[in-house]
């Protein structure tokens, strides 16, 4: 069989006979590949193996890794619709069943003898204790009943870290942590780095730039984010692509209109599914053609467009005529609606968006095209310290950090903005009765 490039620490998991196992692993360390190796062993040993994660996309990553390894040997991972299982009959009688934490009911009443969970820290404790863990049952061909929880570090204060602290040192529990530095193919036979010092420094800088954990702190078992005070730091992991975004329901579009030299960005969404994100260098003369092309790609007239009415947006009202059932101007720099909590509307809208994602994160997966740019725009958004009302760091400071204007982030926040029309429902009904729809 093809070799799995995993770290020696993670290799301990494959040999572990303990019923409870946990891995805390940095990005690029082979964590998901280790789970795929455990799946391969389950197939060979005839285990009934359930694998899960916070979203379907995250849960499927280990399955995809296993499929690639098998394909390199000319073998296929077959799907059986009858029992929602993955098999490779050439290797053994075991099966892998994959579920996600956003569909808890699908996992209820299922039995297995091997349980693996990817990105465990991002699942809820209640999902593990009340849904996933009760699935474990004895009586397999191999006689094993084992749970393996793996996660990238989320921080020192979360249920997964508490779970590790409470159980580390127990005779029934194995805990390991590793980073990309521990992967065998990055080391010489004597254990020294196979890479140049400059290359290693470059990787560490990349980790910091990508908002990953600082490598030396990972190696010491500490979990510290270099933008730990950001509004979206613990939510960005869950902004994952969805192959089939939900397209029914009310379509909301947010348009951040460019100042001179910047980009106009448009985001369309239904509920918490982003359908389309696009951006283009525009001015008031080219704004309407850009929006017409965007809506043509969307394939449906939006129910509402929220647009940035500050800067050049003050002169853009006519550009939106007839493009949506309702058009709503919003000025980021104006006073907040809830003046007792927020200084400006921009801070209020960004905080509303963060709270929306926090509430929705375990309900269903998100569809996020342009995910890298959106993550970059959001990850440095944070509160200003020592303010009675919530304020955000100025946009000009974010520009310095990401070397551009956070256009996609602003457009997305506008797409999720609540209108301040108090009688919105009556407006919609009245418009419908007048034949405006």
What is the fold's blueprint, element by element?
Layout lengths: L7 H8 L4 E6 L5 H15 L2 E6 L2 H16 L6 E3 L4 E3 L7 E6 L13 E4 L7 H8 L13 E6 L7 H9 L5 E6 L18 H13 L5 H5 L31 E6 L6 E8 L2 E9 L5 H12 L5 E5 L17 E5 L14 H16 L10 H9 L15 H8 L4 H9 L8 H10 L4
Helix pairs in contact: 1-2, 2-3, 10-12
Summarize the structure.
The chain has 437 residues and is an alpha/beta fold.
Summarize the structure in words:
- This protein is an alpha/beta fold.
- The N and C termini lie far apart (61 Å).
- The strands form two sheets. An eight-stranded mixed beta sheet has the order 3-4-5-2-6-7-1-8, with helices on both faces. A five-stranded mixed beta sheet has the order 11-10-9-12-13.
- Helices cover 32% and strands 17% of the residues.
- It is elongated, with a radius of gyration of 25 Å.
Q: What characteristic shape results from the CA principal axes?
A: elongated
- Main structural class: alpha/beta
Task: Write down the overall mean pLDDT.
Answer: 76
Q: How is the largest sheet built, in terms of strand order?
A: 3-4-5-2-6-7-1-8
Oligomer: single chain
What's the total number of strands?
13
Low-confidence stretches: 198-226, 362-367, 420-437
Helix content, binned percent: 25-40%
Q: How big a fraction of the residues is strand?
A: 15-25%
- Radius of gyration of CA atoms, rounded to a whole number: 25 Å
The DSSP helix count reads: 13
User: SSE string, helix = H, strand = E?
Assistant: HEHEHEEEEHEHEHHEEEHEEHHHHH
N- to C-terminal distance? 61 Å
What's the story with the biggest beta sheet? Answer: 8 strands, mixed
